[in-house]
Design a protein that fits this description.
The chain contains seven helices and six strands. With 356 residues, the chain is of the alpha+beta class. The chain has a domain of 247 residues: Up-down Bundle (Outer membrane efflux proteins (OEP)). Strands 1, 2, 3, 4, 5 and 6 form a six-stranded antiparallel β-sheet that branches. The radius of gyration is 38 Å and the shape is elongated. It starts with 41 loop residues before the first helix and ends with a strand.
């Protein structure tokens, strides 16, 4: 139990409008988490499933969540006592000295010294609790970050998939236009040979055919780049990815309503992540302010020292110590951006040691 020396977190006061300026009044349900299924494409469903299983950015975000959870457990450990155990076994032999007239080896000496140490820091100013709050808020922010990465990944896969279908449709239209223009050119050339068509009309049609053919290479290059990007998103090599089949006309168009601006702010994981980071920063303020106040710790140690294993359980070798420490930081200076500090700790120890 203790006192909190930092400010309590307050949610930012956001003035959200009550309605969209261009809203038409049509209301529909919010899109689900698997919103891409509304397009009715089994290929898109399969591609997004592969991306969620093999994308490295999403795997890194999941690893950051685990790291933040581990940091939260570490921060919470400071609220509990710390217990440690040590054991020592020393065997000593003394060499006889000729100067003292000693010719026989004295018996060997064995010293057994097991010890148990326990320490606890009184969280009087709430520093450890604030550290735990900051770690929990950071862990929450990492979860929202994972949602941001996942949403970005699924939208990127869907957008790239739609671009591939669009480019394929444009290539189909371009090839169809080239075939029609080439057919017209052949007809004009036949009429020119018969003397019923001028050279100018034939040359103009040849120019039109050449212009249509010039549109094909850029579209082909964009299609290949989109396929490469899709392969990277799903964690596969471009050579292992085949071209998706179908056209844009095969897709269904889901109905999505904007809802209210305040609801949109509450649903966005990037905004929730920023709020969680703000909560962590607020808790860090408490930790920084608590560092100006003294810290109180209690340390207890119990040990047994014996020259023989047979006497290790006897009361004669029992040793214990209890220490109360008060440590305070007087000042800390870092001038001109140089990272050095000066500490003058003041320590008060009340120690009682008893040996039998």
């Amino acid at each position: 139990m203790g006192c909190s020396v930092g400010p309590a977190f307050q949610h930012p006061d956001t003035n959200s409008p009550t309605a969209w300026r261009t809203a038409d009044g049509d209301q529909a349900a919010w899109p689900e988490a698997d919103w891409w299924r509304g397009f009715g494409s089994s290929q898109l469903d399969e591609l997004i499933a592969q991306a969620e299983a093999a994308n490295y950015d999403l795997a890194a975000a999941i690893a950051r969540v685990r790291e933040a959870d581990a940091q939260a457990r570490i921060a919470g450990a400071a609220l509990l006592p710390s217990v440690g155990a040590t054991a020592g076994l020393t065997r000593q032999r003394t060499t006889p000295s000729a100067a003292s007239g000693q010719v026989e080896f004295p018996p060997d000496t064995t010293l057994v010294n097991p010890a148990i140490t326990a320490s606890y820091e009184f969280d009087f100013w709430g520093k450890n609790r604030a550290s735990l709050e900051a770690a929990k808020a950071s862990a929450l922010a990492s979860r929202y970050d994972e949602q941001v990465v996942k949403l970005t990944l699924t939208s990127a896969v869907a957008t790239t998939y739609f671009q591939i279908l669009e480019l394929r449709d444009r290539l189909t239209v371009a090839q169809s236009n080239i075939a029609a223009a080439q057919k017209l050119l052949s007809a004009l050339q036949a009429e020119q040979a018969a003397g019923t068509e001028t050279v100018l009309d034939v040359v103009q049609q040849k120019t039109a055919v050449a212009a249509l053919k010039a549109q094909v290479p850029p579209l082909t290059q964009q299609l290949q780049q989109s396929l490469d990007g899709l392969a990277i998103l799903i964690g596969r090599s471009p050579e292992a990815l085949g071209q998706p089949s179908g056209t844009l006309s095969d897709l269904s168009v889901p109905l999505v309503a904007p809802g209210l601006p305040s609801e949109l702010l509450a649903r966005r994981p990037d905004i929730a992540e920023a709020e969680a980071q703000l909560m962590a920063a607020n808790a860090d303020i408490k930790v920084a302010r608590a560092a100006f106040f003294p810290s109180i710790s209690l340390t207890a140690e119990g040990a047994i020292a014996s020259l023989a294993l047979a006497g290790i359980t006897g009361p004669a070798g029992a040793v214990y110590a209890v220490t109360i420490g008060v440590t305070s930081r007087f000042f800390q200076v870092a001038p001109c951006g140089v990272g050095w500090s000066t500490h003058r700790p003041a320590t008060m120890n009340c120690c009682r040691t008893t040996a039998r």
